[in-house]
């Protein structure tokens, strides 16, 4: 199985806090730090190359590029501060040299600079020493060192652009120029700068330096003195002392000059937040004029568009041809502008454009990918949500919100997004140009959320509870409770039937997403887990935490544990093929481990981020690994095998191209398109008409101009003839003057020649005399030289003989060494040839691939640029028209609402009238029915009266046996009360006995304590006796003294009467104790038995009473119901009798009256009896409640 490797593919973001963090390599390429790497970004081709940082680096401090754009210096902190120099002309930017402070301890190098010829490098060490180093970097030789400051920070150092020996240093209260001479750096000029804090400077010529301060001032220094001082923003002149004080107070609010860069026409500098000013040199010497202001544009989709303008410029740089100006900000954004375009629009305030896509400016907290589209989503503490395309390496969409976003999840279709904010969890749609919320869930500060692979469910973490919602109905399907502390990571299985979670309580749980049951668990309280992933077969899990290890968990057990050294793992991800695991660490590195896990600790480590890795995701097709970190950078890694090919896919993924758009937006856009097309046709016709008019005007103008030209030509010909005549006259005058001058010159020349000939003759005679003297002196020196040469030749011959012998010996050795060297050189040449051939083949193949890709991308870029320009123009026009249409729609909606309210009121009135009519019809029908029913009731009531009379007689007969039963129950109650009194008596007797026994027990305890004290005293005596015995043993060889000591011991510790008394007392007390203990044990057992019997009897009696009460209550309720029915019948009877009085006979009335009186009397007697029985039952209940003891209260004592 081929090992899987991750290769850097693309990076989004910029590392802030690095000095000089933006550099131009050539016209199209910039270099900037990102994570723990330096990126070479081609602006036109949108491609990147990477320069990896050193292992275990604690962070980059500064960058510097040589003047010939060949070498890059990177300052880092590993174990100690280092400066690494890279060769940029080499294809892979190989490392050339690593420079350190040598014997001087250095924590970090704050800033650096190359010399004009790129041979020397200067580096400024940090506090507290603030030492400046000068290296000849190719030889790693420290040429000189000097302390530049005592307390304040140094912000910038630089070489004179034409002098290797002159160095400028600026900082807090420091502006110094040093000169290198005689292996020492000496300060060549001093300035009074104690009150100024210099943030940056630039050389304008060999003697002029312009510096910027934190108070918004620009100062120019030239040849050891300050020439002028000016403010970036205009400030009024100060006259009085009070005005001076006010001016000093406002210095803090002035814009800071944080960056400055010079070019041929002048210089550019920052002028406060989001502003860069261009200054050009005037015709007057050493004076500069502000010509242009360039501002950072506001963000379109930001919550506060002006916040982008508040970014502070950290670095400025100009391209080699001085065509473009680039800037980096303190929020990690890159901007650029064409200087030629900025100079053309002198009247208008220019604006920067993004060099690359805008990126996050704070910690990235969430990351997610989808299946159907090549998209990834991120959220950050900068309150923004961004959608990226990992195939085209483009920022597709972003939006800023009012709350911080803690977690994010992208739906598998790529059309929806789930974001956990500080106040709520929101489900949003990804539209064509916006992110809109359409559902909110009451989950606060959701730190983890995830969609299932099918997209039908999503899980959200609420503290230590995991809520699972349905994506279709938005119902809370399951609540998974089990973690004791916060849940840090969750992951769905491939078939969405399982969910794995891990938390800070050291627990990893597997949940069933259908039932909510916990399938398996693994708890390790010593570890706080931060990341978990699930194997494709859903049988094994992998978790990482604070214990610096990777754990493989299966069936509630940890199968394997891979230790990661002293590095804490923060997150883990596994490829869908199951071949490799990727781990993110707290130091920002990414580790790749083969699966199955190796026995030994074997992994490949990649330098990635400058902070802990927060999230890590592998795309669905296993082609890319995506990592994010606290350094606000996003890395895309290409997953390949060692042969350089991507991982094989089971099926080729075809990404969907559909996007969401609302119907109203689509209709509006279609209308706008039609309007625009009509407008275009109108404009074309207008343009044609205007062109024809202009053609006519231009023809008329041409005719007028031709006439004017002919007139001017005629006038010029006349002037020409006049000038020719004047020229001929002047030529004749000049000829005469020339002839006169030539005659004068000939005469003067002849006089000069005669005088010079005489002087030459005299000089020649002197020369001959001197030659004779020279000849004599030469002969003398030749004789002396001849003698000296003879002596030297003799000495040389002797020396030659001796040295020739030595040379022969050395030559023999040299020939031997040369043979050996030639053999090694041949072997090395063959090895290099083989390596070069292999490398050339690989380079040729890669070049062919990239050239093809480049051609395709160029074509696509050109096409997209044209489309972008047209669409942006259309977009702006459409936006304006959309706003107008929206206003009209809102007005129409308000009118529609008013009309609808009027219609509803009228409809309500109509319905009310209809219902009133229906009610009246119903009332008439009801009255007719009631008349008919009353007639029927009269007949039925006559029959019921007879039945009621019969029932009343039957009730009277039943009341007597009921009264007998109540009396029997009363007698039973009295008997039960008697039994209760007896039980109370027995209980009180038992309590008295228990009290007596407690007293006896207390006395026994006291006796026991006394005995214990006696035992302690006896123990003390025994110890003293042992000590005395030990002293006696010393005199074992002296029998007399031993005898005396034993007698003394006997007198001290033994008396005869005491011995006899103790023995007697001990035997008696033991017998008495045994006898009393047996007696009390028997009493306690009998009392216990009596208590159990009494409690059983009480319980049985209570249950009997309760049952009897229940029976009585039932009977009473039955009687009440019968009474109610009788009363109702009587009432009906009375009403019926009154109704039928007129029609009834006198006889019938008399008989009915008698019967009615009889029934009334019997009913009144029955009611009295029932009331009396109720009162009696209540009295009995009160007595029972008062007499029955509760289970918790003690029984009353028994009285004799």
UniProtKB/TrEMBL annotation:
Region of interest (Disordered), residue spans: 1136-1156
Coiled-coil residue spans: 666-1014, 1102-1136
Domain EML-like second beta-propeller: 365-639
Segments annotated as WD repeats: 357-398, 480-521, 606-639
Keywords: Coiled coil, Repeat, WD repeat
Matching InterPro entries: Beta-prop_EML-like_2nd, CFA-57, WD40/YVTN_repeat-like_dom_sf, WD40_repeat_CS, WD40_repeat_dom_sf, WD40_rpt
UniProt keyword annotation of Iron present: no
UniProt xrefs under Pfam families: Beta-prop_EML_2
Biased composition, class Polar residues, residue ranges: 1136-1148
Protein name: EML-like second beta-propeller domain-containing protein
Origin species: Cyprinus carpio carpio
